[in-house]
């Protein structure tokens, strides 16, 4: 599939419904244009998480709780291009349902680096940001993150075709049932158990080991960056806000001066403007922090895939080993030589040889087991091979996406810095003029 | 207004106290100065209009003050204005610099001397260039002398004697440089002042060899006389002044208010410096983190490295911007904080002179009353006992009183002259000081604004070059295979 760079602005993907684009939304548009052209869903359907609302209701333990629901809107692309666009289909979902969807996808497509959800709780906050899940700013950023998640899934070649995903977008009531009917939960549980157990793989695919290591590094470095950035934002906020005090003192001072008064007063206004400007700046910067966070969580998803590879590899090796030992047993039984120590061997030595009939029966059983075993090994081999192939392809896809996205983020961050510098220049030039009139 | 709207959404950070919106200006800042300052802030709504008294009264004539000539304010106005233009028209004829600090170690102490270089065309100087070394004590001496000679003139402050808290060593580089700068400023202010710069003490300070200076110092008003002055000053301040003219009360009020404002500005600037320093420390970690990241990446390595580089360069610029605040703006503001002490002292001394005068006038009045009553009183029985005739005694007493009254009247006249002279001197120096203050602070703020503009311009250039490099990369790499 051909990659198109963001600069070439593909128009195939329709613009999201509302015309008033916030910086984060326009960011999304940029991102949309770089999703692969080959994906089916986004070509045909427009998806957005348009709103968020508070609801109260009874929870599982019959207690009142307040939670937020998000409005998912979908609309066929063709309809938008016509002059009269119909009302979009919409339904409400809460965060836990998104989690459910994602867990389903994780289990069903273990070889895919599944896009992450926005964080459950606010982390890497600096003092101005609230850690409260009900905080409107947090909710808004989560809305954007959820939309991003849906768009990522919808643009993934495999995931976008999933029935459960489709019905997540369109069937409000019955969806939960449908998901549970797939029985993914059981698979998930056993998978989790297996993954949590320690096991050693004899011949891991080197590439996956490297990828896992990369995932570790990526997670560590992005965490560090987010932490540093949050602290820096805190400080910068302080710097700007203290300038507001200049405004106040200048204003008070201007009242006791005759000639200097006007100049001081107007300079004070500019100081106030300067102090106020930091809010918008940091709000925008928060957006880039969110982009980083997405890849922080992506790193986790990447490592999960690598871990799953190890598991499949381990299962293959286990099966092969079992087969090997069974074959060996067969050989020993057939030739009568005991090459390896076994309890059976010991007992037969101690308690005498088996009867020819017993031996025959055993040999027959072993044969059957060996046949089964060979089937299993074949299966597992195929599984493993397919996994490796699928996973590696997805990892390559992910790498390209990551490189592109992060590069865009760096560029946009630089653009933001430029805008911030320009504002600073303007404010201080204005202040300088006022001082000259003092 | 969007500005207000944006401000309304702000959640107050924990370390700023709530501003009480008592000042109904259209811009009420959401953040106030920490509580210890806001308590001292004047609520300027209710204050009387603190008009600065700036009528152009002047010194009586050009270079020397003659206390006995009494000229009307009107004529003084003209003289001052003329003088001012004259000053501007004349080229500056005395240039002085303070530099080159050097450390001296003796058995008893370690101290620093500064080189003082004077270049002048003034005729009263024997030559046109002088170079001497002076230590802080010498500057203190000079200022003390000027204060003694001109109690109601405003002398620029010296840098503080003692070390600010938080400094480890008395002689660290920054401290010395700050002091040097302040001493340079001090000498230049003295040199620019028509009265101070024409005195002997100043001349000797600039030109005398160390031995000369020491002996000159010894000649000056001794400890005892200074003691006497202090005692009188204390007595006077206890007495208090009765009828201070409004103009001087206004000056006092202005000094108070100005003192608050300038202290507040100084504190605010120190706070900004602190926050900026801490911001810089955090920012310094971003570059290395990105560099670390870049070492894990392939295609992303170059842009990450570039950004790390850009951030490091921004740190350097931030460092420089901070340097200006610490090395220039803060000391400049601090000097004017010290100035307010001088203002208050000068006003106090003027008050004391007036108190002296008032006391003397009272003494005269009471003597006169005594004389009045004496002339009416008949002699006492004692006098007749002693054998003097009542009339004789009365005449004797009256004669004595008249003598005393004449004495007091003479002294009173002197004090009146002194008062008039002190008031005039203060008045014109006040105007002069205000002008200088305005220029000084104006240029300090302009410099700071300039510095900040430069800072943002440099950062802007850094980011633009980053963008440029990335876009160039993008163009170049469109067809590159990333594997």
From TrEMBL, chain A:
Q: Residues in domain PX?
A: 48-175
Keywords (alphabetical) are: Protein transport, Transport
Segments for region (Disordered): 1-27
Point out the coiled-coil segments of this chain: none
Q: Which residues form the signal peptide?
A: none
InterPro entries, per database record: AH/BAR_dom_sf, PX_dom, PX_dom_sf, PX_SNX4, SNX4, SNX4_BAR
What does the record list as GO biological process?
A: positive regulation of autophagosome assembly; protein transport
GO annotation, cellular component aspect: early endosome membrane; plasma membrane; SNARE complex
Record has Transport as a keyword: yes
Q: Which Pfam families match?
A: PX
Q: Which family does it belong to?
A: Belongs to the sorting nexin family.
Q: What protein am I looking at?
A: PX domain-containing protein
Q: What species is this protein from?
A: Danionella cerebrum
TrEMBL record, chain B:
| Superkingdom of origin | Eukaryota
Among InterPro entries, the record links this protein to: AH/BAR_dom_sf, PX_dom, PX_dom_sf, Vps5_C
Gene3D superfamilies for the chain: Arfaptin homology (AH) domain/BAR domain (1.20.1270.60), Phox-like domain (3.30.1520.10)
For this protein, the record's PROSITE patterns field holds: PX
List the keywords (alphabetical). Coiled coil, Protein transport, Transport
Q: Region (Disordered): which ranges?
A: 55-74
Looking at the record, the residues that make up the PX domain are: 92-213
Specify one Pfam family.
PX
Gene Ontology cellular component terms for the protein in this record: early endosome; phagophore assembly site
Which Gene Ontology terms cover its molecular function? Answer: phosphatidylinositol binding
One BP term from GO: protein transport
Please give the coiled-coil regions recorded for this protein.
Answer: 398-425
Similarity comment:
Belongs to the sorting nexin family.
* Name this protein carries in UniProt: PX domain-containing protein
- Tell me which species this is from: Danionella cerebrum
């Amino acid at each position: 599939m051909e990659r198109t760079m963001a600069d070439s602005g593909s128009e195939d993907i329709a613009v999201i419904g509302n015309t008033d684009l916030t910086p984060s939304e326009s960011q999304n548009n940029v991102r949309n244009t770089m999703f692969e052209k080959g994906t089916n869903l986004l070509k045909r359907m427009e998806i957005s998480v348009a709103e968020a609302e508070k609801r109260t209701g009874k929870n599982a333990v019959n207690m009142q709780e307040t939670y937020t629901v998000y409005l998912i809107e979908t609309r066929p692309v063709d309809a938008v291009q016509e002059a009269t666009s119909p009302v979009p289909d919409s339904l409400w979902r809460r965060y836990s349902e998104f989690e459910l969807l994602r867990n389903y996808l994780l289990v069903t497509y273990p070889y895919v680096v599944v896009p992450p959800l926005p964080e459950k709780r606010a982390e890497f906050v600096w003092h101005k940001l609230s850690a409260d899940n009900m905080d409107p700013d947090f909710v808004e950023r989560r809305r954007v993150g959820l939309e991003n998640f849906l768009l990522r899934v919808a643009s993934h070649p495999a995931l976008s075709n999933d029935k459960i995903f489709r019905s997540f977008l369109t069937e409000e009531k019955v969806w939960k049932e449908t998901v549970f009917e797939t029985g993914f939960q059981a698979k998930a549980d056993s998978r989790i158990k297996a993954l949590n157990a320690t096991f050693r793989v004899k011949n891991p695919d080197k590439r996956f080991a490297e990828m896992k290591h990369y995932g570790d590094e990526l997670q560590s470095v992005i965490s560090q960056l987010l932490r540093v950035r949050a602290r820096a934002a805190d400080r910068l906020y302080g710097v700007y806000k203290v300038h507001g005090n200049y405004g106040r003192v200048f204003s008070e001072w201007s009242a006791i001066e005759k000639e200097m008064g006007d100049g001081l007063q107007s300079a004070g206004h500019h100081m106030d403007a300067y102090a106020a400007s930091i809010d918008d700046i940091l709000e925008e910067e928060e957006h880039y922090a969110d982009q980083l966070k997405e890849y922080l969580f992506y790193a986790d998803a990447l490592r999960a895939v690598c871990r799953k590879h190890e598991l499949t590899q381990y299962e293959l090796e286990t099966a092969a080993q079992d087969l090997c030992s069974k074959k060996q047993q067969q050989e020993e039984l057939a030739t009568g030589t005991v090459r390896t120590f076994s309890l059976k061997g010991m007992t037969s030595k101690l308690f005498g040889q088996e009867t020819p009939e017993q031996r025959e029966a055993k040999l027959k059983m072993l044969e059957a087991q060996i046949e089964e075993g060979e089937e299993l090994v074949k299966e597992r081999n195929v599984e493993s091979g397919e996994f490796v192939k699928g996973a590696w392809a997805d990892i390559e896809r992910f790498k390209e996406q990551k490189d592109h996205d992060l590069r865009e983020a760096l560029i946009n961050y630089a653009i933001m810095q430029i805008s911030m510098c320009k504002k600073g220049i303007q404010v201080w030039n204005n202040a300088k003029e006022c001082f000259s009139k003092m | 207004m969007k500005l207000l709207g944006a401000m309304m959404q702000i959640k107050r950070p924990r370390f700023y106290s709530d501003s009480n919106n008592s000042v109904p200006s259209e811009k009420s800042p959401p953040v106030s100065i920490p509580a210890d300052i806001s308590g001292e802030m004047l609520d300027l709504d209710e204050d009387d209009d603190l008009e600065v008294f700036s009528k152009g009264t002047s010194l009586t004539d050009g270079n020397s003050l003659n206390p006995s000539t009494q000229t009307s304010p009107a004529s003084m106005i003209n003289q001052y204005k003329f003088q001012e233009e004259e000053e501007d028209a004349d080229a500056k004829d005395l240039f002085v610099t303070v530099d080159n600090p050097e450390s001296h170690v003796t058995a008893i102490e370690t101290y620093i001397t500064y080189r003082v270089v004077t270049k002048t065309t003034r005729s009263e100087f024997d030559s046109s260039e002088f170079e001497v070394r002076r230590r802080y004590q010498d500057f203190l001496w000079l200022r003390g002398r000027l204060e003694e000679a001109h109690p109601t003139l405003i002398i620029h402050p010296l840098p503080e004697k003692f070390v600010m808290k938080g400094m480890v060593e008395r002689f660290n580089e920054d401290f010395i440089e700050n002091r040097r700068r302040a001493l340079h400023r001090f000498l230049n202010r003295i040199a620019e002042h028509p009265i101070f710069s024409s005195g002997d003490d100043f001349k000797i300070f600039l030109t005398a060899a160390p031995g000369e200076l020491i002996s000159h110092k010894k000649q000056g008003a001794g400890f005892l006389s200074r003691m006497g002055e202090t005692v009188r000053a204390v007595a006077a301040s206890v007495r208090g002044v009765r009828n201070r003219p409004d103009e001087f009360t206004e000056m006092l009020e202005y000094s108070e208010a100005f003192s608050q404002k300038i202290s507040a500005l100084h504190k605010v600037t120190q706070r900004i410096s602190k926050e900026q320093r801490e911001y810089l420390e955090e920012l310094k970690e971003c570059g290395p983190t990105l560099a670390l990241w870049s070492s894990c990446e392939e295609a992303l390595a170059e842009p990450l490295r570039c950004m790390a580089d850009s951030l490091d360069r921004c740190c350097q610029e931030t460092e420089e911007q901070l340097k200006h605040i610490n090395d220039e703006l803060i000391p400049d503001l601090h000097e004017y904080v010290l100035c307010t002490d001088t203002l208050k002292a000068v006003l106090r001394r003027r008050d004391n002179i007036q108190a002296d005068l008032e006391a003397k006038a009272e003494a005269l009045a009471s003597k006169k009353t005594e004389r009045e009553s004496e002339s009416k009183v008949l002699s006492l029985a004692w006098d007749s006992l002693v054998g003097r005739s009542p009339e004789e005694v009365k005449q004797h007493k009256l004669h004595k009183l008249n003598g005393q009254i004449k004495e007091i009247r003479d002294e009173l006249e002197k004090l009146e002259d002194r008062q008039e002279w002190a008031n005039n001197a203060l008045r014109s120096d006040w105007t002069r000081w205000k002008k200088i203050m305005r220029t000084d602070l104006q240029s300090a703020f302009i410099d700071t604004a300039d510095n900040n503009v430069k800072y943002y311009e440099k950062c802007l250039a850094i980011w633009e070059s980053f963008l440029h490099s990335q876009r160039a990369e993008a163009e170049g790499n469109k067809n590159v295979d990333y594997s």
